[in-house]
Amino acid sequence: MDASRDTLLHAVAAVSGLAAWIYLHGRTVRGDHALSFYTLCAGTLYVLLQRSPGLQESPLRTTTVFTSIHALCLSVATVIYRLSPWHPLASHPGPFLARISSLWLAYVSSTGRRHRVMDRLHAKHGPFVRIGPNALSINSLSALSLYAHLEKGESYRFPVHDRVASIFLKQDSKEGHRERRRIWGGLFTPSSISAMTPALERRTWQLMQCIEQRQSVGGGLIDLPEAFYHWSCDLGGDVVFGGCNELELMRNGDVNNLVATGKYSTAMMDTFGHSPWLLHVLWRIPATKDMHKLVTMTAEMARKRVGSKEPPTSRDLLSYLIDGGVPMADMERDGMIAILAASENTTITLALACYFLAADPQYLHQLRNMLEQAFPDPLGPLSQSALAALPLIDGVVNEALRLGSHFFLPRVTPKGGVEVDGVHIPGDTIVALASYSIQTSPDHFYPEPMNFRPERWLPEGLGPDTKTDRTALAAFSYGQHACLGKTLAYNQMRYVLARLVLAYDMSLKPGFDVQAFREGIVGRGVPNLEVPLEMTFQWRPGVHFDDLGDRA
Ligand code: HEM
């Protein structure tokens, strides 16, 4: 190719790169579509060059140079703008790489330690930190007001834009979400929750049998989070699909890898949701095969439930969705969300509660004394109202949530922007509450904000200087997307904790590294435990496994 054609081609590549930046600016484009478009363009250019006479360079080399110049100009324009004083978030401090690319946030999220990184950044820069080209983390309780009316960010698409609408995931219409929330709400009325008690009791007796059995083959130790996961999936199967799928993880183990695929999918969304274009691409390749598996598996469960001739003994989630006229594809997606929602958070909160009680047995004994006064028979019935009247049990659960659940819940500001603490945040900015910093700040929880002190939640607290700001516990979120299952979750956690504390002495594996365990409480969409939590449960004197009889 002669020099003038060369120069012309390079100029076209550079100008088209800048034009692409102008077009993409402020637009959301699907990464897989963009990749296909560019592949098609590069392919077309290659074919045209092949047919052009008099080329000195090979068509492949010329296509590569053209594409590289285009990509370089697009990237440079993007970076210059994001670092420039004209960017709407230019006045907010934050890490250099975070200002350039959302991949910084994706990387930090993948480590599970995003909450600690944010905490350090807030300590250095103050309450507003730029954590992405277009994203702010806010360490101020005033940001709670944002959750009342702001919509969810793109990271809530699972995993790509499609026409399926589901609770929890980003929906295109506010009304659609409100209506779906109303339909789901049927499952969480006081009478519906109380109708779920027999399933909760039966599954908890089975949990105790499971602990017994696994300890007997595990050298006296139980992998507690795993047992709780299996308990919560079995119970979730009852609550969501009326038990027709016979998951029975406590009995059979997790033969379909439901727990692992769920954890993996949640972590992928939490990591790459901040760079949705990348998730769109990943969705097309085997890296996300576990996410596909989860979608397929839970869709099959929903279809089996809908096709089942026998109605469930008490109304399950699908009963409400069917009566609400929810389309089949939406029911399948809602079923997936429900199984994840019903299992992941409850499991880890319970495991952490047991860990804290075993690590600090004075609280185990205090809680047991209180429980024994209310329930003299350790294996007798446990009424929910009597459990709810024991503030220490909620204190234990709240501390486990406060120290273990640090959610990152991004919302998008409306076109005109919003004000927080007198600071204007421009429209189309992703904002998120720094929940870990809020939940461990001495301004909200004092004294010993980093320590497990359940009595801080009791009326007398930890003395006259106690600060326990209940609104600063962000574990169930706030506003129009707040957790629908909060009451159910508390009921379940109180019940299981009471059963275990009344029946067993619990202790950590000998030599357990408490420090490493605390370090390993990370967040990948939901709390994850990096260090295995192996514990021993021993029947208390006078309480025997045989006493369970046929209750399980
Ligand atoms: C310890 C237990 C639990 C915790 C800490 C928890 C936490 C949360 C949080 C933080 C959200 C809001 C997410 C966001 O705004 O992005 C949420 C939403 C939700 N949770 Fe829970 N959850 C728990 C248990 C449950 C249970 C047992 C259910 C019952 C199936 C449930 C059902 C839901 C639903 C349906 C939503 C979506 C609400 C909406 O988008 O309108 N959760 N949960």
TrEMBL record:
Keywords: Heme, Iron, Membrane, Metal-binding, Monooxygenase, Oxidoreductase, Transmembrane, Transmembrane helix. It comes from the Eukaryota. The chain crosses the membrane at residues 7-24. Heme binds at residue 483. Its cofactor is heme. PROSITE patterns: CYTOCHROME_P450 (PS00086). GO terms for molecular function: heme binding; iron ion binding; monooxygenase activity; oxidoreductase activity, acting on paired donors, with incorporation or reduction of molecular oxygen. Pathway: Secondary metabolite biosynthesis. InterPro entries: Cyt_P450 (IPR001128), Cyt_P450_CS (IPR017972), Cyt_P450_E_grp-IV (IPR002403), Cyt_P450_sf (IPR036396), Cytochrome_P450_monoxygenase (IPR050121). Belongs to the cytochrome P450 family. This is Cytochrome P450 monooxygenase. It comes from Trametes versicolor (White-rot fungus).
